[in-house]
Design a protein that fits this description.
Helix content: 10-25%
Largest sheet: 4 strands, antiparallel
Number of helices: 6
Strand content: 25-35%
Radius of gyration: 24 Å
Shape: elongated
Structural class: mainly beta
Length: about 450
């Protein structure tokens, strides 16, 4: 009787979902039969309600009952896995047009902590084991569900034998192995998802700048330009690493990285090692690579206007800028002098980050990658203070600032003058870092 019911359920479901959804849901029916055969033999309708768990209060045809999981940006505001999850697998879709003719990648973010529950051979625990309620995303029948589906393709983070259900999905034109280096290239494809989309998957280039400071390896990240800002505190890397924050995946959210082996670092020589997080807060690195050498100043920017920040180094007047996290071409730009402090920003709001240098109190900024191109020059701040750069007023272009022993002095124009914004955040010995998220 159990075999006949599984076959009947499979036939029923195949008419209503993709092959991926069919395989996953038929497996759930099989699990239900294995654990409670009498219940589901006598009440087969209950088995189907378990398959589409979380959408029982929604009308037929609602996205919540479609079998797929909601986008992370619909729930958490950014197209990246939320804290407490990891990428467990991925698939690609062709023909969407969203990636300029290239593949579009979908990554499942599974809950990391099963709360002591076991997973068995499935590799996933039930939604009742995780700190995430199964249901329609944001309690909206017009959004797909969250924290319900027990499934993992398994190409990523294979070191975790047991993970929770899928909390949400990330969609990117970046290959998954450039988002999380544990991901393999083992292929999975489902073109039926090519046009799954949402406005939040297309963030603007504007990210409101916010302050952060690093003490040793402890990051204190604020949510506004104010001494009274709410903060998030976490540890990452080692004391002596050089901290950076950038949008490494085009998610609209800037996340942390540290660079080990620079002139501020803990290693005496050798290549620079970059340890990048794609998820907000601390944790283990998602991408690790080498770029640059001892004595270089690490930096990051969106060198081509595609919305993704990639690494660069400044070497005594020479800028070496790379086109991806995992490799790619290197552009060389001559600009600056030995002793200059490099700064990076989108000075004219065109979506492309270009070089600048601070020489004492003098700011010299390029709007192109041509060293002979037009520059913007002005004096601002004390020479002993550390330069900081950010879009302080969310107008789409970067602006100058100075950090001096916990005092932030910021300008809202590329011109000389007194600070337009000043506040206290951090203290002596802290390293200032600027982060941001789409307003």
């Amino acid at each position: 009787m159990s075999t006949r019911l599984v076959d009947a359920a499979a036939t029923f479901l195949e008419q209503r979902t993709t092959r991926r959804g069919f395989l996953r849901r038929a497996a759930i029916v099989g699990s239900a039969l294995a654990t409670a055969p009498v219940t589901y033999a006598l009440r087969p309708g209950t088995a189907y309600s378990r398959i589409v768990v979380g959408c029982s209060d929604c009308p037929p045809g609602s996205l919540c009952c479609s079998g797929f999981t909601a986008f992370c940006c619909e729930i958490h505001g950014a197209n990246t896995c939320p804290p407490g999850t990891v990428v467990a697998g991925w698939w690609r879709a062709e023909g969407s047009g969203f990636c300029g003719g290239a593949s579009r990648y979908y990554m499942d973010c599974n809950a990391l902590d099963c709360g002591g529950c076991g997973c068995g051979s499935s590799g996933t625990c039930a939604h009742t084991c995780v700190d995430c309620s199964c249901g329609c995303a944001n309690d909206d029948c017009n959004l797909r569900k969250a924290c319900c589906t027990r499934f993992r393709y398994g190409q990523c983070n294979q070191q975790y034998a047991c993970l929770g259900p899928i909390e949400c999905r990330v969609v990117s034109c970046l290959p998954p192995w450039e988002f999380d280096s544990t991901c393999t290239t083992a292929d999975a494809r489902n073109d039926a998802t090519a046009f799954h989309d949402a406005p939040c998957l297309h963030p603007s280039v504007v990210r409101r700048a916010k302050p952060a400071v690093v003490t040793g390896n402890v990051f204190t990240v604020a949510d506004e330009l104010s001494a009274d800002a709410s903060t998030d505190v976490f540890s990452y890397g080692l004391a002596g690493d050089l901290p950076l924050m950038a949008d490494w995946s085009g998610s609209g959210l800037e996340t942390i990285a540290v660079v080990r082996g620079s002139r501020h670092g803990v290693l005496p020589a050798g290549p620079l090692t970059w340890l990048v997080r794609q998820i907000a807060g601390g944790g283990t690195p998602d991408i690790v690579f080498e770029f640059g050498r001892h004595g270089d100043v690490p930096l990051a920017g969106d060198w081509n206007g595609d919305g993704v920040d990639t690494p660069g180094v400044y070497r005594n007047g020479t800028w070496l800028l790379r086109s991806s996290l995992t490799g790619g071409s290197v552009t060389e730009v001559e600009f600056g002098e030995t002793g200059d402090v490099p700064v990076v920003g989108d000075w004219n709001g065109d979506g492309v980050d270009t070089p600048g240098v601070v020489r004492g109190s003098r700011w010299i900024l390029l709007n192109t990658f041509e060293a002979t191109g037009p520059t913007v020059e002005f004096d601002f701040g004390a020479a002993a203070a550390a330069p900081v750069v950010g879009d302080w007023d969310a107008q789409g272009r970067d602006l100058p600032g100075r950090f001096d022993n916990g005092t932030w002095d910021l300008r809202t124009s590329l011109a000389a003058g007194p600070p337009d914004i000043s506040f206290e955040f951090g203290g002596p010995g802290d390293i200032p870092v600027v982060w941001g998220v789409e307003p």
